[in-house]
Sequence to fold (268 residues):
Amino acid sequence: MAPTIYVDTVTFIEALDQLMPGFDPEISKLAQRITPARDGKPVTIELTDAKTKELKDTLEVDAALIATGRAPFTQGLGLENIDVVTQRGFVPVDERMRVTDANGKLMMLAHAASAQGISVVEQVTGRDHVLNHLSIPAACFTHPEISMVGLTEPQAREKGEKEGFEVSIAKTSFKANTKALAENEAEGLAKLIYRPDNGEILGVHIFGLHAADLIHEASNAIALSTRIQDIKFAVHAHPTLSEVLDDLFKSAKVKSQVTSRVKKPVAV
Fold:
């Protein structure tokens, strides 16, 4: 008979001065609401300010699981024997996954590595395939879930300033979704970052029920260069959580109604 395991509370501690520093700042602030309370006994953890290093608090917990990040495991593989130069352990590649002296494509995600591997096979077999790394989604399996694809708001605004285009934001709440209300999971937000001049989707961030599943509609739209002018006419079943994305794209204000592709009538 399997032993019974009792779980009380889990405290999530971030070494930097905010939770989930790689995500959009607005979503990171929402994530702090789901941080569990502090509790425990034998293990003592001292919490210090990330900037000043001043002692702020002390936690006593039953056990501590520490995740310090990941590093490439390339040492000892003999890469130097075949003239492959590494940078901090990574193998630099170009956009077609060819070894080069340019900056490598660094995304510590299993599905990103799989997509990169597919890109390599396509190139080797003579089929040109460039992976759009901005279309690769990421998710945190908290409750509610958090997901993202593309640029954060600060990244998008920096890009806009450099390239001379305006950045707009659209948001929608899970509180307006009947399926979320029926599930008693109405806590949530979806955020769209886009160019109002041409409808390009720059980033989508979701905090809410099944966010890790919902993000793929936005991910595929970015991968296929689908503009808001096109995707806002997509039909979603009712009542479903997918309507959160439907409302999000419909709420965007795009100045140009010219789409990025020529539409052809389909005979039914």
